[in-house]
Amino acid sequence: MTSATSDAAQPAPTAVVWDPSLLKYRFSAHHPMAPLRLDLTHRLTDALGLLDAEHVRILQPPVATDEELATVHSPEFIAAVRSASCEDAAVDEAHGLGTEDCPTFPDLHESAARIAGGTRAAAEAVWSGEVTRAVNFSGGMHHAARDRASGFCIYNDCALAIRRLLDLGAERVAYVDVDAHHGDGTQAIFYDDPRVMTISLHETGISLFPGTGFANETGGPDAVGTAVNVALPPRTGDAGFLRAAHAVIPQLLEEFAPDVLITQHGCDSHAADPLADLRLSVDGQRQLAFDLGDWADRFAHGRWLATGGGGYNPLRVVPRAWTHLVGVVTGQPVPLSTPIPEAWREHVRRLGKEDLTGDMSLFEGDDEARIPAVMGEDADVWWRSWEVGYDPADPVDQTIMATRREVFPLHGLDPWFG
């Protein structure tokens, strides 16, 4: 006898933000923030069938209006971005436009506003209950501040989504950033708002841009304890990063009790990324996605919006890391042993030097060395739990304890035991 499948057994509805127009966010042929990262990620998620499931909705990203952008950015900055969206725009140092990090190009405003609109629309879908989880891997523009572009970021889509959730009625929103770089723009925008907790784990600002994000940055006068920073030493690796995440994030999320969790998954923490030195693996980044999804279920009513972020190895790292993220968000985790579809690998083989942002290292070695064959890296992601003990001689433990000492007592938590 065949029994009908119960509604409870059906996968929860999820959303993936995507449209080819997102590839228009392109500073120059040689800029590290290359749209190829997004194209290859979409192609890999599609090749693995992650976008075909009935419970997965493809969410078209609208271009955010000036009024929507002005909920987190100053009108003067938005006007400056519009003015810079032309071929011969002058350098605008005051707003961070036309710089080496953020060159201008004709589609600057619209392409950046589309990314922001996509994450904002995903937040609306999660809050309304239309979907339980959503991901915009083109998003994660966490360096953009209220009135200044920075670090390859023009409009801060994560901040726009947080503001929209608050306007829709969310009482508390948590934002967790695991990019190699400090989520300084998002932190700054909500630094004095007690309704928003920003948690950033990143390589220390002593050695890496933007030079901020230390343990003593804990929030403004009206929101002390809602900015949390774990400034990790270079070469932290999977075990250290996961140890830090588990020693700080779940304890604070449980205490803060957010209505929604927003996460930023920059994969520039990988050992093969040219711009940072944390030395994680794809396997470790995948585990972080699982952990953050679990914490969304446990502490944020299952409401989870994930974004991409940094990540500048477009062949070996970004497509795998963010395809794993899409798999976790949509409830279709991809085993690490999964072979990468040959059609995707063949597409990569056909790419020319003009497609790879002038980085000649991406052409070094044969195809097997350059182009991954499976979805994992056979890395050891075992990590030592904080409950096992604190090693005062370990630089990672020193960093963890610095954060716990600064922030945990502000939430009634013991910095030694939680």
UniProtKB/TrEMBL annotation:
Keywords: Acetoin catabolism. The keyword Transferase does not apply. One of its GO terms (molecular function) is histone deacetylase activity. Residues 31-327 form the Histone deacetylase domain. It holds the Pfam family Hist_deacetyl. GO terms for biological process: acetoin catabolic process; epigenetic regulation of gene expression. Pathway: Ketone degradation; acetoin degradation. Transmembrane segments: none annotated. It comes from the Bacteria. CDD domains: HDAC_AcuC_like (cd09994). Belongs to the histone deacetylase family. PANTHER family: HISTONE DEACETYLASE HDAC1, HISTONE DEACETYLASE HDAC1-RELATED. This is Acetoin utilization protein AcuC.
